[in-house]
Amino acid sequence: MPHVEGNARRWWVLGGSSIGLFVLMLDSTVVALALAPIRADLHASTAGLQWVQNVYLLTIAAFVVTFGRAGDVYGRRTVFQLGLVAFGLGSVVSATAGSIEALVAGRAVQGLGAAALLAQSLALVTNVFAPEDRARALGIWAAVSSLALALGPLVGGAVVELASWRWLFWVNLPLVAAGIAIVAAATPQSRDESAPRRFDVAGLVTLTVGLTGVVVALVQVKQWSTAATVATLALGLASLAAFVAVERRSPAPIVDLSLFRNGPYFGATAAAFTLVGCFWAVMFFVPQYLQLVLGRSTFESGLEVLPVTAPMILFSALAGRLIARFGAVL
Fold first, then answer.
1. Of the candidates 66, 94, 95, 97, which has an alpha carbon nearest to the alpha carbon of residue 82?
2. So where are the chain's domains?
3. The CATH homologous superfamily of the domain defined by 9-197+270-326
4. How far apart are the first and last CA of the chain?
5. Per-residue pLDDT tens for 164-202?
6. Can you give the pTM of this predicted structure?
C-alpha cells in the first residue's frame, strides 16, 4: 500500500485503528456461540470452556494499562502494530489447537495483543484529528466497537454453522494483515515525552497474580478441594491488597487510585463493572443453554442472542447525543 499523504491520512489512521478495535471486540463475543462445538471437539470440561472466555478478558485487564505506558515511551504506532502481530499469532494457535489447553494458550496470546490494541487504538485517532473533527471521529470509533460486540454472536453462529469453530480465528488474519499495512502506511509515530520511563513491575505482578488467583478459585471451585480453592482465593485477594499498597507508593502507578475518590468516576466504574459482569455471564451460559438444552443450531442461537447485543449499536450512538445535551450524570 502506498504511503498516504494529506488530509486523507487521518481517515486512513481511523480505519487502521478501527480494524484493531473491531477484531479485539469481535473476538470477545464471537467465541460464545462456539463453546458447545468446542466442548464436543476438544472434550473440554466446563472449567476449560470458562477459561477460553476468561483468559482473554483477564489478560486484557491485566496488561492494558502497561501497554498504554509502553506506547507513550516506545511509540504508539509500534505498540499497536506489535499488538496486531500478537493477536494474529494467538489466532493461529487457537485455530490449530488440538486440546483445550492449547486453545486457552492461544486465547491468552490473543489477549496480550488485544490489550495493546485497546490501549493504543484511541490514542492513534486522537493524535491525528483536530479538536473540531475529533468528536465525529470518536463517534465512528465507538460505533465500530459497539458493532463488533453486537455482531459477534451472529457472526460466530454463522461461521460455526457454515464451516467450523476454527474459522472464527482464521478469519482474523486478513483483517490483521490489512490493519498492519494501513497503520504502517498512514499512521505517524507519536510518543508522550513527559511520560515516566519507569514501568510499575510490582504493580503489574501483584495485579496479574491477584486477578488470576480470584478467577482460578471461582472457575475451579467444583474441581478442587475446599482447601485448595480457599488457598487460591486467599492468594488472589492478598495479591490484590498488595497491589493497592504498591500503587499508593509507586511514582508511576498502573492505576491512579486517587481517581476513585471522585464520585462520578467511582460511580461510572462501579456501573461498568456490574454491567460487564452481567453481560459476560449471559454470553457464557445462554448460548450453551440454547444449543445443549433446547437443541438450537449455532446460527439460531446467534439470532436469539442478538436482541441482547443489538441495542448496543443504537444506544452507543444515542448516548453521545444525550451526554452532550444533558451531561454525563442525569
1. 66
2. 9-197+270-326, 200-251
3. MFS general substrate transporter like domains (1.20.1250.20)
4. 47
5. 899 999 999 999 999 999 999 988 888 877 766 777 788
6. 0.80
